[in-house]
Every structure is written in C-alpha cells, then in structure tokens.
Amino acid sequence: MGFSDKGKYGIIPRLVKAMLCCCLFLAATASADTLSGSSRDVQPGITPGDVLHEAESRPVASFDPSRMQVFPSTPSGTWVVLRSLPPWTSGNRVLSIRTPGLGSVTLYNEQGPIASTSLEDFGPALHGHGRLIFEIPASVPASRPLLLRFDPTTMPPGAVTMTVEPWRDYLREDGGWVVFATACFAVMMTMALMALCFALILRDMTFGWYVAYLLCYALIQGLKSGYVFHPLEIQSLAGLADVLGATATTLSVSFAALFMLRFAKIDDYVPLLRIPVLALAIGMPLLTVLRATGIGVLVDTSQLLQQPLLLLGALLLLVTGAVAAVRGSRHAWFFLVGWTPLLVLTALCGAQQQGMLAGAPWLPDAAIGVGAFEAVVLSIGLSDRALTIRHDRDRARQLADSDPLTGVLNRRAWTEAALQVLEQGMSRPIALLFLDLDHFKSLNDCYGHATGDRALVAVAAALRDELRPTDLLGRFGGEEFIALLQGVDKENAVQVATRLCRRVHRLDVHTGQAQADDLLTVSIGVAMRSAADTVQSLTERADSAMYAAKLSGRNQVVCSGPAGPALVRRTETKLR
C-alpha cells in the first residue's frame, strides 16, 4: 500500500504517516523479538559447520539480538548464531545489523563464507544506510540458523542490534532513518554556514570556533553512523575513519572550549576558570599530535588519556557555563541548553559501549538529533550575540556622532553627512543655515554655565522640532548650530530661517542684558549651494552671512550670494 493510492489518504494522514516513518527507527521492531542469538570466540581449527553443530547440540550463552550487545574484542573475532523463532515467515528477508562499528562482518553457511561487508565497503555487495545488511533469499528456510563472523577491529567494538525482517519493513525503516539523519545533518551544516557568514561579516572568531566545533561533531556522527560512507559514498574516507574520528573528537572539545570562552564571556564572569578552560583547549589537540607520531608509547598514552580527558573537559565546560550563567552571562544559558543534553547523551552512549543500557538502541540515533538541536540553540544564541554586537556598535556610533549635551549631530558627524548629501549632485537645491545665539556669553556670565547648558538644550530641541527629519542639524561649536536643508529654494530657506529665529525668541530665555528685551535670540546666515561649492566653502559663505546679520543688529536672517563675501546679497528681516 503506497501514498499513490487514489482517494485513500488525505493530506493530514499522509503527513502523519511520513512523521511516523521518520520515527520508526527509534523503536525496536516486532520482527526483532522473534530472534534469539548465541556467540563464541573464533578459534583456530573450528569451522563454520562446527559452530553451527555446537549451537544445535549443546546449550551456549545466548542473548537477545533486539537489545544492544557488545561482543568482546578478541584477536580472531566472534562467531554469532541467530535463530528465528516460530511462527516462521517465508519470502526474501533482510538481515540488518545496526551500529556495527567499523569492523567487517561476514555471513557464513556450513561450507564457508557467503558475503562480507562493512561500513567502509564500497564494493558490489548490498549496502544499508547506517547499518550492515545481508539478503536472505526465500530458498533459505526461516527455521535455518544464520551464522555471522564479526572480525576484530582497532576501533572500540560497536554495541549492535540485529533483526531479520521482510524487505518491505526494512525499506520503510531505512527510509525513515535516511530522512531523519539527512534532516539532522542538513540542520547542522546550515547552522555552520550561517555562522560562517556571521564570522566573515562581523570578523568575530566566536562564530569561527563554533563553525569548527559543529563541523567536527557532524564528522564524528557521520563516521559513527556510517552516513559519510552510505548514503554519501565518500570513498576517500575509507580506512581513515579511525584517525579522523579520534582527531575530530579531541578537536571538537578544543573548539567548544574556545567558543565558550568568548561566547559566554568567561573572562568577565568566571575569570578563575579561564586558565583551566584555555588549558583544555590547548591540551586536547596535543593528544592528536601524540597519536600522529606513530611511536607506540605515545600512541598508547594518547589513547589512555583521551576518554578521561574528554569526560573531565566536558564537565569543566558544563560547570564553567553554569557558573557564568548564574553570575549573569546571558549567552551562557544558550550554551547550557544546547550542551547539557549533548553531554548527557554522550555519556549514555559511552555507557552502551561498556555493555550497559542495552534496552535503549535508539541512543546512537538520538545523538544525531541532539546534535541538530544543539546547533539550532547555539545558532539562536549566536544570532542574539550578533544583534547585541550590532546594537552596541550602533549605540557607540550614535554616541560618537552625537553632541553629548544637545543630542544633535556633532561637527564631525554633520560634516560627513553633509558631504554625502553634496556628493549626490545638483538634482535638488540645497541650503545651508549657520546659526549663532546672540549675547550667549552674557547669559553664562549672569546665570552660570549650567543655565547656559540648559539654554543650549532648549534651543536644540526647538530647532529640531521646526526642521524636517531629513534636514541635517548639528552643533558646530559653542553656541553655534548648523543645518543643511535639501529640496528648498532660496525663498523657502529664508522662510525656514525666519521661523527658527521666531521660535528661539519665544523660548523666553533671559540673557541678563541691561535692556528692556533681554531674551535670547539667534542670528542666521543662509547660503544656497552652487555647482562649485564644497562643504567647507558653503559653510564659509553661510558663516559670513551670519556675521553680516550680527553686524546688522542680530536676531535676523541674511542670505549670501553664491560668489562669496564680496557679493553678499542680504535679505534682512527684523523680528523685534
């Protein structure tokens, strides 16, 4: 029965069935419960027929193939006899071995070997995805025992489960595993690519260490599950899984330590643990160097130290992250949420390699899923970090561009912004207003500099309210302000300047002058941009017009001609 049956399934049942297919590999199958198994060491002079006869004639140690089983690492390997219990089924069947490790497995009959395969085998034999498979033809009765030989390997033996099931059931479970594993590895690679883009854009090595860690972890899981061999068919890695796995394992801890140092800001929150974490980051790659020397003593030392250091290093990172989180490191919480499940699952998988937790065959596949979960969580944390960095940079730029007293643009920032406007060409008219407060020194002398500062803040707020958001308003220095207006002709520029004079006059700020009207006023010079103008020349012409307004009695607007002070054309508007 397939998804192509017309009228049989709606869209929702199809989605439900697809989800169930992805999850089927996490549970033990019903057919696995119909198997029993026994094992013994491979010894010289013992033929496959002798092994089968021994299993028939006298009781031997048995095990449940549906539960994870670790066969002892012996020099010659291990014989495994599998029996299907009644009721028996007929037809072509598939013998599948999950999480077999990197050693080869051979199927025998009484006469000798029938077929041999391994995760690193790219020959014509059948290949499973993440498992080893053998086809059992219908001509072989289901009641006949099956004989396997697990060859020795330098890698730690895998904790395996074995099933014999019809092809239909196997293909369904295999398809679910491929979908699940592909989705998890795709998530990890996508998160790594996103972090790499952030690293290049922000030039922040925090993202670089995360990319390195994630690639190492994906490689570890790809090798353990056999995904890099089948279905990816990366033949260049055949024979290198032992070295690559050990190297990726040590480097992953090192990159995780370097990542956490920066990501959780250990220097700020847990300075006492910075040195141990840094020592872990430096020390773990040394195990790889010792292993690469090929010297027996050094290789044995690295292998002896690897597991204890991995456990201690993982606990050190967990404790450091927890302390940093408690002390206020926001991003340390992201690290803990992603790292803790992975650490727990890694410990459980390690326990399975020692023969424990045999009833949880889903743990190796869960390690792939948790890796994808960690990648998503840490990527969210990194995105939050990127937003924080951007916010901090924007805030720093705003502080650098703003006048600390009035909040308008300072002279440098205004000049840069005005230069960008002038570089847009002559498509729109541009007017520059140069403003200078009248008798401001008297205000400071009579009422103090604090009152003068408050007056400057009030004037800046009044000018900002009168101008458009697109107009550039800045503090040129002291009691001088400057504004660049886009898209206004000379007449409108004078009208805007006149309105600004009136607004400042209405602030009711007294200067302390010995006269009837001692309110604060402003003199404004206006200059219209010409084709030959630069920011400096335009400012100088407006400044000259402002001084002309001062000399003419203050509190008025004077507009300069385009040729400079010699050809000043004044438009005076007395406002008192």
From TrEMBL:
Q: Which reaction does it catalyse?
A: 2 GTP = 3',3'-c-di-GMP + 2 diphosphate
The molecular function terms of the Gene Ontology recorded here are: diguanylate cyclase activity
Which InterPro entries does the record associate with it? 7TMR_DISM_rcpt_extracell_dom1 (IPR011623), Diguanylate_Cyclase (IPR050469), GGDEF_dom (IPR000160), Nucleotide_cyclase (IPR029787), Rev_trsase/Diguanyl_cyclase (IPR043128)
Matches recorded under Pfam families: 7TMR-DISM_7TM, GGDEF
Q: Does the keyword Membrane apply?
A: yes
SMART domains in UniProt: GGDEF
Superkingdom as given in the UniProt entry:
Bacteria
Ranges for domain GGDEF come to 428-562
Q: Name the cofactor(s).
A: Mg(2+)
Q: Which UniProt keywords apply?
A: Membrane, Signal, Transmembrane, Transmembrane helix
What Enzyme Commission number does this protein have? 2.7.7.65
TM spans, by residue? 177-200, 207-223, 243-263, 275-299, 305-326, 333-354, 366-387
- Identify the SUPFAM superfamilies for this entry: Nucleotide cyclase
**Signal peptide annotation:** 1-32
Membrane as UniProt keyword: yes
Name-wise, this protein is: diguanylate cyclase
